[in-house]
Amino acid sequence: MNCSRTLLLLLIIGLGSQVLAKPKSKSSRLPSFLKVCYRDSPELNECAKESFLVLKPRLMDGIPELYIPPMEPLVVPEVKMDQDSGAIYLHSVYKNVKITGISKHTLNDLRIEPSKHKFVVSMTFPQLHMESDYSIKGKIMMMPLLGDGRCKVDLTNITMNTELVGQEYTKHGSTFLRIIDVKVKYELSNVHMHLDNLFNGDKALGERMNDFLNENWKSLAEEVRPLLTKALVDILRASIDKLFEVFSYDELLPKMKE
Ligand SMILES: *[C@@H]1O[C@H](CO)[C@@H](O)[C@H](O)[C@H]1NC(C)=O
């Protein structure tokens, strides 16, 4: 369920890719392999898509210069999900979350609207596999849920749309962007999960609960949507905020003519 971090990180790459191929000034600290895209170019979106595709192989190994961790696999140390409303009462922690399948994505759309400081990315992942240590305590559709162990989740056909909106501000005489809004929307076609060691290792109860979760994945996924969306936004923000704090707007997305 924690796969979406990647999506936003991928988005960042889109943003990070509008850079000079050869740094002109000593102050440009962006990696030299990035293709420059100019914010006032009519081909901005084509350029951004192209540089994204060029970056794709590097992306999977991570780009420390841009605060992007390795993505194949992507490892998230910890994700917490707590909810006390609707049909779900849930307190859960997932540790050492490892996600595979990110490199098999398709980029559906990558758009930059410089006048609004807006960045839009849409991607589809045919198959994502997640494994982690979990700890869950709660109630789902009137049924108690309790467990502590390993969990595996397979997600099929996930399409994720991300939108960032920034605001300009001045720091040390340069223009920077502060991201003031992050929106994440996702759709998926199927979920299959397995939680080991539910109910203190009671196998019969555990299997019944796993069956129940898989049969009802659709309504459960809707129930946890706000929770999952918030978790994703929080995770993504950390990296996005760092990137925009370190690199000025003119470095990330220069103007063609000064
Ligand atoms: C994948 O999901 C999209 C909606 O997000 C849907 O239009 C498409 O038919 C799905 N494809 C498959 C193979 O399930």
CATH class: Alpha Beta
Rg over C-alpha atoms, rounded to the nearest angstrom = 20 Å
CATH topology: Bactericidal permeability-increasing protein, domain 1
CATH homology-level superfamily = TULIP domain
Give the helix level as a range of percent. Answer: 25-40%
Mean pLDDT: 86
GO biological process, one term: circadian rhythm
Signal peptide: 1-21
Pfam families: JHBP (PF06585)
Family: Belongs to the TO family.
Give a verbal description of the structure.
With 258 residues, the protein is α+β, with helices and mostly antiparallel strands. It contains six helices and seven strands. The protein has one domain: TULIP domain (Bactericidal permeability-increasing protein, domain 1, Super Roll). Strand 4 and strand 5 form a beta hairpin. The N terminus is likely disordered. 2-acetamido-2-deoxy-beta-D-glucopyranose binds next to strand 5. Belongs to the TO family. It comes from Drosophila willistoni. Keywords: Biological rhythms, Signal. Pfam families: JHBP.
Search tags:
alpha+beta, Bactericidal permeability-increasing protein, domain 1, 6 helices, disordered N terminus, 258 residues, binds 2-acetamido-2-deoxy-beta-D-glucopyranose, elongated, seven-stranded antiparallel sheet
List the helices and strands and how they pair.
Elements: H1 4-16, H2 44-61, E1 74-83, E2 88-100, E3 106-113, E4 118-140, E5 143-171, E6 174-187, E7 190-195, H3 203-215, H4 217-223, H5 225-246, H6 249-252
Antiparallel strand pairs: 1-2, 2-4, 3-4, 4-5, 5-6, 5-7
The structure holds 2-acetamido-2-deoxy-beta-D-glucopyranose.
